[in-house]
Design goal:
ubl conjugation, nine-stranded mixed beta sheet, metal-binding, alpha+beta, magnesium ion binding, elongated, Rossmann fold, 33 strands, Calcium-transporting ATPase, cytoplasmic transduction domain A
Length: 1212
């Protein structure tokens, strides 16, 4: 790029930053010490800059930049997919049966055994392949992104991300993602500063400042890379996002590298026109991919339990097969010599009276294949079909379609549909998942007066609830909820309404001077950069945090527009009245003391146009109040009350203050500050903190701000509904603790009055110690930290257990450093037990790896189903570790979606995904599997009874075609319709009665009692079907001509009874009928008769003994129809009696709702319906409802006090 083609931005932003953006000059001794640590284990990587070909050869051979999140590839698909299929016990059994069908002892042909198995396994593998193909397509979208790279001779061109190699010099432009981990060489700013958004990595929304080495700043144009060569020696690939150790060897000099020069893959360049960087880590070596884990093969709890049921059935199969083989051996030895018609003189090993044991062993194998109908091979393929159709319904649910982005819900795997109905704990990311990163300026307190008439969402909900419960309540501090909350604010970030401050009306206020200072602090105390919109002429702001952006918008609307920043000044256009022209004022920036989670404040020191030096400070109220002068506490009492009110309303607050500095005082302090700022060593941060603390004293309080944290649409309501459904919610975020706590308040995971348990290992005494001494004591301090943390956990657990207040709620808050100790083997159980006892858990400053480890701890420690939800690459490990991973298909990349099992575009859709689809899918699959075992036991045991009845001969009472059609045609479609269309209650009722969801986590429909109940029902039905048919047909004529029934007639009549019994049973099981269910259930019965008619009309060579069996034999016999009716009623009578008793005497929740809906009481008696729905929630201490209940208790308390005081006054 020619030097004149683009004017570089000449601002040297590094002069503004004190804590995070310093470029000290490294001494030779420092460089030598750093060099000595490199080259050893863990620090062996060498990168030859601008020479990518070197890294393709040995001994380096670094991986390409190609990434993959798929389970399989071309080589591993067949072996891994086959292993997945035969991990299922039933498939393994049928594989063995298929092999044995090739031998002479098989009762069926090998085709009839191999073909169904191949069909079932092939269909399941095809489904796996399709789902993995979708992941592959998503990977290719990422791999096919393009970036500009240096191809040689100072020329740059574009190539795909996947072709980027270690050593490549790349040029990344504004708002682009970094394709790999890069070393920053230069930027569009003269001093090599650039701004990076790392939301995809650590959840932080505020911009990070990165800086290049001074020696590489001349590499600022395309042509300068013609002869560029350097070597980077650094650490090996590792998952740590916040550390980097390396040296940069350039022009025979060695320069130390640190994390501030590293640009990580999947972070985004912001507020900087372009940067040049050299690729250090590619593909799966990059830090974000190092934090990812392999895509696991997940199985649902129901599927794992189903395997145990298969074991039980297989044990039953072996048992009756042993009984059959023993019976056969006994009959062969003692009975066969007398059965002349079997030619005992001409036998084989299969039935030799002289070798009964051998004959018994051969018959055992025959019986194992014959009774195979006890284990339903079609169960798995039916479940696969049902799950695919369920996934289609999820994908096409219009209630989970986001019109703004055009993204529907996407069930990326259908294996886990039923798990959605059994979730116990939700682990959620914060940024981009719960929040939309928008703050609204709502209220403020200036000079002891509260401004802002709009109510927060919490206030509105509490007032409406009280009004609905107790009618009109007249409180002294009445909350107005007449504001139309559906009306969107006209200005993004500014929902303030109060004419006293708007349009310059504050000019005549007695406290006008204080109000002026308040507005100036909003407009000046920040690090933002203004960007003019050339079309509208208005300014937008790129701020390090959403709060700063909201303050600047508020200042602009109040008439104090921040419009320009230069190297040493900021400019504000001040308008004091709507009729006046704005006055542009310049303020010289002397020093900037940045915000940090430890400082909890930020300050800026300015010189105004009158030459006066001002220190403007904003921060947490507890920090500011401690630093107020005696004369600066005039408004402290009133402001404290306002801050408390704002906090109760769910708003996040900051206190604003200032101080006038004398010239001499500032000069003396600045000398100390510059000395600390330019110092080198590990104690530099502590020195800066100490010097900053010296000047941030004797402050004068001006007021406070209250902003409403804009969560994604519907997040508080969704969390409230999930809490009412009995789900526990943990928030895992990379954000600092204060931000996470504020978000907790905003989405009602935290509330006023909730007791916060903050676990921390920070030792404040170490801050003032010499860093070298601290390093020597690190091992001792680590042990002390662990012991201290264990003591904190023990005390907190004791406090929770001793709490007697039924309304008391506890919140556990822990940071990433402390979590490192809490997750160690000797402490994680204590930590988990405490977390389980708390109403909400928030983990702050956690790395992606820690998110995954916490998820694993909850998963393994509770034994319950966990769901992880996130939107960024930093959430991939957590999503893959959880039983169910849900990705948010937002605007920030697709890494989370690619690794997820389900994707939705908004957090609020999780409510419907779990409470509706999860509830339905769980009950459908559970009922479907129970019914499957019932019908196969009812059918399979009749084969055993008949074989025992015929001297264990291995003879089946049914025609081969009957047995083939039983699972494939005659009973498959009704059970599929049950799994796809069954609804115990409609979707809107699922949302109105969230407690219904607890039927899944409590496993009411797939516990052992219900499973054995259905098995017992199958056993009973098999006994009724066999013995009623044999008893009736055995020794009496079944036609007017006096004919008795042969085996074909008995077998057909018995099979007809089975078809009727199992189809009537499934009709009784269904709660919701559509024409499809009617078609499938009664169509299956009709299909049986049509088949019997068609089969009987075929040639006797095909139909054998069943020739014309319906038309000529059974159809005209009244006893055939009578037996069918009698057996069908007898089989289903116990189930009918059981369900009638349960509904009458011990109804489940959905039974009550079904009855209310049936009698239309929900329409006729709305009051009763609302009362029932308000009861239908699990008792919870988090969520919007819990917060509103707490607010109501508070307001009722105030009302009670007021009534009491009035009564006393009246009595007086």
């Amino acid at each position: 790029m020619a030097r004149g083609a683009r004017r570089r931005e000449l601002l040297r932003w590094s002069k503004l930053y004190t804590f995070s953006c310093l470029r000290p000059c490294a001494s030779p001794s420092d460089s030598d010490a750093a060099a000595q640590s490199l080259g050893g284990p863990g620090f062996s990587r060498a990168v030859h800059c601008n020479q990518p070909r070197i890294h393709r050869k040995k001994p380096l051979r670094y991986p390409s930049n190609y990434i993959s999140t798929t389970k399989y590839n071309i080589l591993t698909f067949l072996p891994k997919a086959v292993f997945e299929q035969f991990r299922r016990v039933a498939n393994l059994y049928f594989l063995l049966a298929a092999i044995l069908s090739l031998t002479p002892i098989a009762p069926f042909s090998y085709v009839s055994m191999i073909a169904p198995l191949a069909f079932v396994v092939g269909l399941s593998m095809a489904k796996e392949a399709l789902e993995d193909w979708r992941r592959f397509v998503q990977d290719m979208k990422v791999n096919s992104r393009k970036v500009s790279f240096h191809k040689g001779d100072g020329q740059f061109s574009y190539k795909h991300w996947q072709k980027i190699q270690v050593g490549d010099v790349v040029k990344v432009e504004k708002d682009q993602f970094f394709p790999a981990d890069l070393l920053l060489l230069s930027s569009s700013y003269e001093d090599g500063i650039c701004y990076v958004e790392t939301m995809n990595l650590d959840g932080e929304t505020n911009l990070k400042v990165k800086r290049a080495l001074e020696v590489t700043l001349p590499l600022d144009e395309d042509g300068t890379f013609r002869e560029f060569k350097a070597i980077i020696r650094c650490e090996d690939p590792n998952p740590s996002l916040y550390t980097f150790v390396g040296n940069f060897e350039y022009e025979r000099q060695v320069y130390a590298l640190d994390p501030s020069q590293i640009l990580l893959r999947d972070s985004k360049l912001r507020n900087t026109s372009y940067v040049y960087g050299v690729v250090v880590f590619t593909g799966h070596d990059s830090k974000v991919m190092q934090n990812a884990t392999q895509s696991p093969s997940k199985r649902s709890n129901i599927e794992r339990k189903m395997d145990r049921i298969i074991y039980i059935l297989f044990t039953l199969l072996v048992l009756i097969s042993l009984i059959s083989s023993i019976g056969f051996a006994v009959n062969t030895k003692f009975g066969m010599p007398h059965w002349w018609y079997l030619r005992p003189d001409d036998t084989s090993n299969l039935y030799d009276p002289s070798k009964p044991v051998t004959s018994g062993v051969f018959h055992l194998v025959t019986a194992l294949i014959l009774y195979g109908y006890l284990i339903p091979i079609s169960l798995y393929v039916s479940i696969e079909v049902v799950k695919v159709l369920q996934a289609m319904f999820i994908n096409h649910d219009l209630h989970m379609y986001d019109e703004d982005t055009g993204n529907p819900a996407d069930a990326r795997t259908s294996n886990l549909n039923e798990e959605l109905g059994q979730v116990h704990t939700i682990l959620s990311d914060k940024t981009g998942t719960l929040t939309c990163n928008q703050m609204d300026f709502l209220k403020c307190s200036i000079a002891g007066v509260s401004y802002g008439r709009r109510s927060s969402e919490v206030e509105i909900a509490a007032a409406k609830q009280m009004a609905s419960e107790a009618g009109e309540i007249d409180l002294e501090d009445r909350i107005s909820f007449t504001v139309d909350i559906a009306k969107k604010p006209a200005i993004k970030g500014f929902s303030f309404e109060d004419d006293r401050l708007m349009q310059g009306n504050w000019i005549n206020d007695p406290s006008a001077g204080t109000i002026l200072m308040f507005f100036r602090i909003l407009a000046l105390c920040h690090t933002a950069i203004p960007e003019m919109n050339e079309e509208t002429g208005s300014f937008s702001y790129e701020a390090e945090s959403p709060d700063e952006g909201a303050f600047l918008v508020a200042a602009r609307e109040f008439g104090f527009e921040f419009c320009k920043r230069t190297q040493s000044s900021v400019f504000v256009r001040e308008r004091y009245a709507s009729s006046q022209y704005p006055v542009e004022r310049e303020f010289k920036v002397l020093s900037l003391l940045e915000f940090s989670s430890k400082r909890k404040r930020m300050s800026v020191i300015l010189r105004d146009e009158a030459g006066q030096i001002l220190l403007l400070c904003k921060g947490a109220d507890s920090i500011i109040f401690d630093r107020l002068s005696k004369n600066g506490r005039m408004y402290e009492v009133d402001t404290t009350k306002h801050l408390s009110d704002y906090g109760e309303a769910g708003l996040r607050t900051l206190a604003l203050s200032y101080r006038v500095l004398e010239e001499t005082e500032y000069s003396a302090w600045n000398t100390e500050f510059l000395k600390a700022k330019t110092s080198i060593g590990p104690d530099r941060e502590a020195q800066l903190e100490r010097v900053s603390d010296l000047i941030e004293r004797e402050l004068i309080l001006v007021g406070a701000t209250a902003v409403e944290d804009k969560l994604q649409k519907g997040v508080p309501q969704c969390i409230d509904k999930l809490a009412q459904a009995g789900l526990k919610i943990w928030v895992l975020t990379g954000d600092k603790m204060e931000t996470a706590i504020n978000i907790g308040f905003a989405c009602s995971l935290l509330r006023q009055g909730m007791k916060q348990i903050c676990l921390s290992t920070v030792n404040g005494d170490l801050i003032s110690q010499d860093a070298r001494k601290a390093l020597l004591l690190s091992l001792t301090n680590e042990q002390e930290a662990k012991e201290n943390l264990l003591l904190q956990i023990t005390n907190a657990s004791q406090m929770v257990k001793l709490e007697k207040d039924p309304h008391a709620a506890f919140a556990l808050i822990i940071d990433g450093k402390t979590l490192t100790y809490a997750l160690e083997d000797d402490m994680k159980t204590h930590f988990l037990n405490l977390a389980i006892d708390c109403a909400s858990v928030i983990c702050c400053r956690v790395s992606p790896k820690q998110k995954a480890l916490v998820t694993r701890l909850v998963n393994e420690g509770t034994g319950q189903t966990t769901l992880a939800i996130g939107d960024g690459a930093n959430d991939v490990g957590m999503i893959q570790e959880a039983d169910i991973g849900v990705g948010i298909s937002g605007v920030e990349g697709m890494q989370a979606v690619m690794a997820s099992d389900f994707s939705i575009s908004q957090f609020r859709f999780l409510e419907r995904l779990l409470l509706v689809h999860g509830h339905w899918c769980y009950k459908r699959i559970a009922q479907m599997i129970c019914y499957f075992f019932y019908k196969n036991i009812a059918f399979g045991l009749t084969i055993f009874y008949f074989e025992a009845y015929t001297a264990f001969s291995g003879q089946s009472v049914y025609d081969d075609w009957y047995m083939i059609l039983f699972n494939v045609i005659l009973t498959s479609l009704p059970v599929i319709s049950l799994g796809v269309f069954e609804q115990d209650v409609p979707s809107e009722v699922c949302l109105q009665f969230p407690a219904l969801y607890q039927q899944g986590p409590r496993n009411l429909f797939f516990d052992w009692n219900r499973i054995f109940g259905w098995m017992g029902n199958g056993l009973y039905s098999s006994l009724v079907i066999f013995f009623l048919n044999i008893g009736i047909f055995y020794n009496q004529a079944f036609r007017p001509e006096g004919q008795t029934a042969d085996m074909a007639a008995v077998g057909t009549a018995m099979f007809t009874c089975i078809i009727w019994a199992v189809n009537v049973q499934i009709a009784l099981t269904m709660s919701h009928f559509t024409w499809i269910q009617h078609l499938f259930v009664w169509g299956s019965v009709t299909t049986w008769y049509l088949f019997l008619l068609a089969y009987g009309m075929t040639s006797p060579l095909i139909s054998g003994n069943n020739f014309q069996i319906l038309l000529e034999a059974l159809g005209s016999a009244p006893i055939y129809w009578s037996v069918t009716l009698l057996v069908t009623v007898a089989c289903n009578l116990p189930y009918l009696a059981h369900i009638s008793y349960q509904r009458a005497c011990n109804p489940l929740d959905h039974h009550v709702i079904q009855e209310i809906k049936h009698y239309k009481k929900d329409v006729e008696d709305q009051i009763m319906w609302k009362r029932e729905s308000s009861k239908a929630r699990q008792e919870t201490k988090i969520g919007f409802s819990a917060r509103v209940d707490a607010k109501i208790r508070q307001l009722k308390g105030k009302l009670q006090k007021k009534v009491s005081s009035l009564s006393i006054q009246t009595a007086t």
